[in-house]
Design goal:
Elements (H helix, E strand, L loop, with lengths): L3 E3 L6 E4 L2 E4 L7 E5 L2 E5 L1 H4 L4 H8 L7 E4 L6 H13 L3 E3 L4 H10 L11 H13 L3 H9 L5 H6 L2 H13 L31 H4 L4 H14 L4 H17 L8 H14 L9 H14 L3 H13 L6 H4 L2 E3 L5 E3 L1 H15 L5 H18 L7 H9 L10 H13 L5 H8 L9 H8 L6 H23 L6 H7 L6 H7 L21
Helix pairs in contact: 3-4, 4-5, 6-8, 8-10, 10-12, 11-12, 12-13, 13-14, 14-16, 16-17, 17-19, 18-20
């Protein structure tokens, strides 16, 4: 951090009877009120340097003590006192922390070269150009301090020049970055790295308030120089600081809503510029804050666009019920799936929908453990995925089995309703072997598995043993003595046939 010192006299300002004054043998002849603070000062020191005071006093009579009320003074009493000390020649120290309000106050008081040579404004402008704008952290800190005097800072060009300086530095190749920066990511040891990371700048600008941050990101995007992932990382860091990590707990919902809507509007349109997990977190927060329909639609579109690149962990977005119980937000995931399917139907990529199908069935295996999910809800979740997304039903079978295990009190009708969505022909041999012995499955499903097993066995036998046998001989063989009784009975049944019992192996119990 760079500093500039002006003046040589010691600080003689002090407070007496609720007023700020200067230690002097001469009685004060100028009273200035700013907000709730009264200053008792001397015309002799202030008038030669302050064009505004010269004009205001010219309109007054020549009374010994003149009172001035300076309403809406930029920077408040602290900034005024800095300017007053400059007029008295008292030593003041300026840095990026107090430069902005001091500059605005000096401009307000018209402490320019036209009033006196070497005045305060020209010295501040020189410090701003040669020191603050040349440094990275100084520029960021100066921008942070424009919030209280934003309108003045913008009109005086401070905001614009600081943003230009920051953008220029961000666009500098990382190998040429020599200024200090903040980078506190876990696992990063600056001593072991010879060059700075590409996203070195994201943490520092995340401290800026929203309007400034939006301007910086918008300018960066317009240059088409940075990778979309870097823009996305900056948005992620900013959202984590102000929204997701809830760092500013006193922020109002309205402020958070505006921040969220702005972040979404800045997300690059390129697929993968931000992660699915980040998008889903924003979407959950968007539902809570009640953002605009446009923002929510865009979040769903972006999430659905890259759902085929998500992981199971990405989808496990927790929310809280009214009784403060945490549970997986299945409605959110379902909406994202619907968004994916709408976009997929325009391209119909088999590879992407198979990835999503695999991912979604893995997700169903997690939510199936929730004892509060009804059969009807589980079936609707399963049927949300089109048949083409499931070339095999092994993972779906696992989800159904987990659900049956977590809901042992299901009725016979409910178990049938759940298992109706299962296609036994799409089960791997080892899964079918498990299903045949699964006491939780309804009998109808087991019979269907056995039928498929038998038909599959017959097809293999016919292919390898009787390749030239006419099909009409099959019925004759099936009625011949020695044919397995169980297989014979199964041939006479259709998958939809309702049975009360089935052949049992030793140790199996009779069940409905």
């Amino acid at each position: 951090m760079k500093f500039m010192k002006l003046g040589t006299r010691p600080d003689t300002f002090y407070t007496e009877e609720a007023a700020r004054t200067v230690l002097s043998e001469v009685q004060p002849d100028l009273t200035i009120r700013i907000n709730n603070v009264t200053y008792l000062l001397h015309k002799h020191y202030l008038l030669p340097k302050c064009g505004l005071l010269q004009r205001l006093l010219s309109e007054k009579d020549n009374s010994t003590n003149v009172v001035l009320d300076l309403h809406d003074f930029p920077g408040g009493e602290e900034a005024f006192e800095t300017c007053a000390k400059f007029c008295y020649g008292i030593t003041i120290s300026l840095s990026a922390h107090n430069f902005v309000p001091a500059f605005c106050a000096a401009k307000f008081l018209r402490m320019t070269e036209g009033v006196e040579n070497g005045n305060f404004v020209v010295k501040l402008e020189s410090f701003f150009t040669s020191c603050i704008l040349e440094g990275w952290k100084d520029t960021v800190v100066a921008l942070q301090n424009t919030e209280r005097v934003y309108e003045w800072s913008e009109n005086l060009g401070i905001v614009r020049r600081c943003i230009e300086s920051i953008v220029d530095k961000i666009l500098t190749p990382p190998a040429k970055v020599t200024w200090s920066y903040t980078y506190t990511r876990p696992g990063y040891d600056r001593k072991r790295h010879q060059s700075v990371p590409k996203d070195w700048w994201t943490e520092d600008i995340s401290f800026l308030y929203m309007s400034i941050f939006r301007c910086i990101i918008s300018v960066l995007k317009s240059t088409n120089t940075l990778q979309p992932q870097l823009i996305g990382e900056a948005l992620h860091v900013y959202a984590s600081r102000w929204l997701l990590d809830n760092a500013e707990v006193d922020d109002s919902p309205d402020k958070k809503r505006k921040i969220l809507e702005t972040i979404v509007s800045l997300i690059p349109g390129d697929k993968g510029s931000v992660s699915v997990k980040f998008l889903l977190k924003l979407l959950r927060l968007a539902n809570f804050l009640g953002v605009s329909p446009l923002t929510k639609t865009e979040l769903l579109r972006l999430s659905g666009l890259q759902l085929d690149e998500a992981t199971l962990d990405d989808l496990l977005v927790l929310t809280r019920s009214n009784d403060d119980r945490s549970f997986n937000d299945i409605g959110l995931v379902k909406n994202v799936l619907d968004s994916f399917l709408r976009q997929w139907r325009r391209k119909e990529s088999v590879g992407s929908i198979h990835k999503v199908g695999k991912l979604y069935d893995s997700y169903l295996q997690v939510v199936a453990k929730d004892s509060n999910i009804s059969v009807q809800k589980m079936v609707s979740l399963i049927e949300a995925l089109p048949g083409i997304a499931r070339p095999e039903h092994n993972d779906l079978y696992k989800a159904i089995n987990i659900y049956l295990k977590a809901h042992p009190d299901l009725s016979k009708t409910e178990r049938k309703q759940l298992c109706r969505v299962l296609d036994c022909q799409k089960l791997a041999p080892q899964v079918r072997a498990h299903a045949v012995k699964n006491e939780r499955l309804p009998l109808r499903t087991v019979v269907q598995v056995l039928f498929f097993e038998q038909d599959n066995d017959d097809t293999i036998t016919k292919k390898h043993t009787f390749p030239e046998q006419p099909s009409k001989d099959k019925d004759k063989r099936l009625s011949e003595p020695g044919t397995s009784g169980v297989h014979q009975d199964l041939r006479e049944l259709k998958p939809e046939t309702s049975l009360k019992t089935r052949p049992r192996t030793n140790g199996e119990s009779t069940r409905n």
